[in-house]
Amino acid sequence: MSRERKAIGQVTAADSEKGVTVHLGRELRVEQLRLGQFVVVENPEAQFFGTVSGLRLGANDAGVTSDPPASGSRLVREALARGTTFAECTIHLDLEVTTGERQPARTIPSHFSSVALADETDVQVVFGDEQKEGFFAVGTPCDASRKETGQPVCIDLRKFVERSNGIFGRSGTGKSMLARLLLCGVIDRGQAVNLIFDMHNEYATYRETEAGLKVKGLRDIFGAKKIKVYTLDAESSRRSGRSNDGVVLIPYSSLTLGDLEALEEEMRLSGQAVTTGTLLQRKWGRDWIGRLVADDRDAKEISEETGANSGSIDALRRSLQKLERFDFMVQGSKDDSGIKRMIDELKQGNNVILEFGRHESTLAYMLVSTLVTRQIHEAWVDQSERYERSQSKVDKPQQLVITIEEAHKFLNNKDTIFGTIAREMRKYAVTLLIIDQRPSSIDPDVMSQLGTRVTALLSDAHDIEAVFTGVYGGRHLKDTLATLDTRQEALVFGHAVPMAVAIHTRSFDDKFTNGLNTRLGSGRDPRTVGSNGNGNGSHEAEEDLFG
Question: Which pLDDT belongs to residue 518?
């Protein structure tokens, strides 16, 4: 070895599909290795980086395993271990480095190549340095010797924001904290502006975790100049003492038939709802939903006026009247200026959090998120086309990341506005950050378009299968995923990292957030490419806040 790494053994066999077999050294106990551990294979021709994907015991004499020594015979066991029994591991190769050039592993190492545990320099070589522009530390390699201490694993934020990404994990594994961590990186390094649909009012200001610990919100960290907070519930904001920059009201006239189609399941709309709505819109114009909700005439009378079936009118009206319980839905001449102001804030480079106040129902979340995202889609497509014509920097659209939770509700159909963004909006500088515990309910075409996936522990077999949709080498990654702890550990793989890696995630504590605060004065505007890139590099856990 060129450096004093901890050697673990030598290559004795290799298969480009099944992986590399390593005969472990006699001085190494197999219990010291873990699935997913980061290793280096080195020979004169190339250096390979990979992870441990399997462990097994073997024996040169089958009689030893068929008639093992007594459990108390330590001397016999040690004697057999020196010459008769052995241990092996399998390595999944991810990268190879030849003549200083790093690329995906397309060959295999030769017999007896040396294998060692990766050291801190290797982690930095592969995953980058937080001191460099665009890189952000998300944790440290996930083995017992490195938790919160070793060289940090970084993601390339420039690659991260240019594609849609997913954060997955079962309930209680810290998905929201992972999202908050990544959003801090994106905001701090100025890689994109962010729109966060905050269903549970937890991203802007201090919140208390399940463990009873208080965690800073994005507005607490970055201040009111960078983080704008809008709300659907002004009364709730007043009662809780939370400040906001505007109230969002939604006139019925701003809803479209497409919005209703996206809400078909939540509103329990009949199969004739769109046909009926089309007829009413043709007769009454853009404000047909508001008119139908407020119209107390008999359905037969409305049917005679519009030509729609009276039974379908009754069914549609009952479904639409569910919207009346939302005080952000308004009739008459009031417009959606709150949404327009939010879009203007985003265009100006400000990050926006939309709080839902008391309106924490899935229907309210889907209704508002769908409508706002549709308008953003229209605005960004228009600006992108304008920029394409003018090639003026003034017209270039902001790189925008939209964060949504309960994502499977929006993405179970690739034809929704969110499915369109996941598939097509990269060219218009809009991507998604989706947070979900049921990836199996997300359309496979959408899953396959996700650039980077950060996956905490999952238990359902269908969810595990779904999260690896379209991923090469998914089988060995499933085994690594199964070994993760329930808190503060995740598997990161995809576009923003050069290889898959299991990490102990960075703690979202005061040391981390104060480190971000020290850089705010020199951070670049998100309208420019890159960032100041001054990393904190601190990974000492003061408290586990990933409950």
Answer: 59
Q: Are 168 and 175 in contact (CB under 8 A)?
A: yes
Answer for the pair 461, 436: CB distance below 8 angstroms, yes or no.
no
492 pairs with which residues across the strands? Answer: 454, 501
Read off the pLDDT of residues 339-366 as tens digits, 9 standing for 90 and up: 999 999 999 999 999 999 999 899 999 9
Place of tokens 């996700």: 450
User: Which residues, in sequence order, are CB contacts of 315 under 8 Å at separation 6+?
Assistant: 270, 272, 273
Residue 165 has pLDDT above 60, yes or no: yes
Q: With beta carbons less than 8 A apart as the criterion, state whether 354 and 338 touch.
A: no
| Helix 299-306 vs helix 310-320: crossing angle, to nearest 10 | 110
Q: For residue 161, give the H/E element and its range.
A: helix 157-161
Residues facing 7 on adjacent strands = 116
Whole-model pTM: value is 0.87
- Partners of 6 in the beta sheet? 117
CATH 3.40.50.300 fits 140-248+336-512, yes or no: yes
Beta partners for 489? 504
- With a cut of 70, say whether residue 296 has pLDDT above it: yes
**Inter-residue contact 316 to 270 (CB < 8 Å):** yes
Angle at 261 between CA 257 and CA 263, to 5 degrees: 115
Domain ranges of the chain: 6-126, 140-248+336-512, 252-330
**Which residues are 228's β-sheet partners?**
352
Q: DSSP letters along 89-147, please? A: EEEEEEEEEETTEEEE--S-PPTT-EEEE--HHHHHHHH--TTSTTEEEEEEESSTTTT
Integer Cα distance of 101 and 297 in angstroms:
74
Q: What are phi and psi of 188, to 5 degrees?
A: -60, -40
The CA-based angle 481-6-25, given to 5 degrees, is 90
